[in-house]
UniProtKB/TrEMBL annotation:
The gene is malK_2. It comes from Paracoccus haematequi. Belongs to the ABC transporter superfamily. It comes from the Bacteria. This is Maltose/maltodextrin import ATP-binding protein MalK. Keywords: ATP-binding, Hydrolase, Nucleotide-binding, Transport.
Amino acid sequence: MGQITLQGVAKRFGEVEVIPPLDLAIDDGEFVVFVGPSGCGKSTLLRLIAGLEDVSGGRILIDGKDATDASPAKRGLAMVFQSYALYPHMSVRKNIAFPMKMAGVPQDEQNRRIEAAAKALNLTDYLDRRPGQLSGGQRQRVAIGRAIVREPAAFLFDEPLSNLDAALRVGMRLEISELHNRLKTTMIYVTHDQVEAMTMADKIVVLQAGRIEQVGSPLDLYHSPRNVFVAGFIGSPK
Ligand code: ADP
Ligand code: MG
């Protein structure tokens, strides 16, 4: 569960090739960070994996099965957005329950998963509040809770902390890393922040203009950047 393979995946919007064909292998349980400057195609690549955009070419395999044409719901992946996308009129409990309701999960199983997610995310005392009555960090936790209860094969995060202030961002970074240690589920995490990439990733994918410049562990990239772009971006001494 949670192994994702991209084979020659490409994306064009009209005349513009935003992502030239690329290959990438993500192992089960890995914490992979896509990092690169604004506009380099990080969100597009994540949306292709999620099935929110159609590829212009190539294949996407999830756990060895061709998922290139599968709907987002069929892929078994859960996306966490920077804008939270919570329902303002629903309680935290109902927000977290929503994807399970859609999937027809039995009520007692829904309750079990909500309690477990709330406990893991320190939301137990907030289940009856509405999103408007929560802090930014708590709202972000609810968005993650809504992803957890789907028991996805992988979590896809698109700059989830960019709306938070600097101090809160450090705390949430630790919480997401801790969640990964606990769940051991594949996570793909998009950021333009090099520090986030270097501190959170098992594997970093450095992107520039839709191309993969280098894939490696934080230490690989630090000690052996393949080119000047990677060295400059990662802040390596070379
Ligand atoms: P990042 O997330 O790294 O900032 P994006 O994936 O959002 O980058 O965008 C990559 C490039 O694709 C940008 O040049 C952007 O303008 C373009 N792009 C993204 N979505 C669309 C779209 N729906 N239509 C046309 N161009 C798009
Ligand atoms: Mg983006």
